[in-house]
């Protein structure tokens, strides 16, 4: 027997072994299924329904999270605006105090 023939025989034997194994597995599961179990299609439908429910719940939660983050961002923006306004007022007041000090120190040293 040459190498080509040996390879073909081994390939055919492997394909047959897989086919026989698959048939035996199918037959075993078919014969040993408890009568109370639903048909194989029903769990898939239930799984799809659960997945859709989970997706819907996740989308609702995502919407709530987005609204919450938008609310927090608006609050932070208003807080930042108030802080920047206060900082601007403080700078203007500091400049006024500096000018007043310079005017006082200039008038006392010159007079």
Could you give the topology of this structure?
Elements: H1 3-31, H2 41-110
Structure, described:
With 111 residues, the protein is mostly helical. The chain has two domains: 1-32; 61-111. Helix content is 89%, strand content 0%. It has helices at 3-31, 41-110. The termini are far apart.
Summarize the structure.
The chain has 111 residues and is an all-alpha fold.
Which descriptors would you attach to this protein?
111 residues; mainly alpha; elongated; membrane; transmembrane helix; transmembrane
Please state roughly what percent of the residues sit in beta strands, choosing from under 5%, 5-15%, 15-25%, 25-35%, 35-45% or over 45%.
Answer: under 5%
Q: pLDDT under 50 segments (min length 5)?
A: none
Instruction: Report mean pLDDT, rounded to a whole number.
Output: 90
The value of Rg in angstroms is: 41 Å
Q: How does the overall form come out from the CA principal axes? A: elongated
Name the structural class. mainly alpha
| Spatial separation of the terminal alpha carbons | 125 Å
Q: Percent helix among the residues?
A: over 70%
Can you count the beta strands?
Answer: 0
Transmembrane segments: 6-29
Keywords: Membrane, Plasmid, Transmembrane, Transmembrane helix
């Amino acid at each position: 027997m040459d190498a080509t023939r040996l390879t073909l025989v081994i390939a055919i034997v492997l394909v047959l072994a897989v086919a026989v194994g698959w048939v035996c597995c199918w037959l075993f599961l078919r014969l040993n299924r408890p009568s109370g179990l639903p048909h194989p299609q029903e769990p898939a439908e239930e799984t799809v329904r659960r997945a859709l429910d989970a997706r819907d719940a996740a989308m609702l939660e995502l919407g709530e999270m987005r609204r919450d983050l938008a609310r927090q961002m608006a609050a932070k923006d208003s807080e930042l605006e108030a802080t920047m306004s206060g900082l601007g007022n403080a700078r203007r007041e500091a400049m006024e105090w500096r000018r007043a000090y310079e005017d006082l120190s200039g008038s006392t040293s010159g007079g």
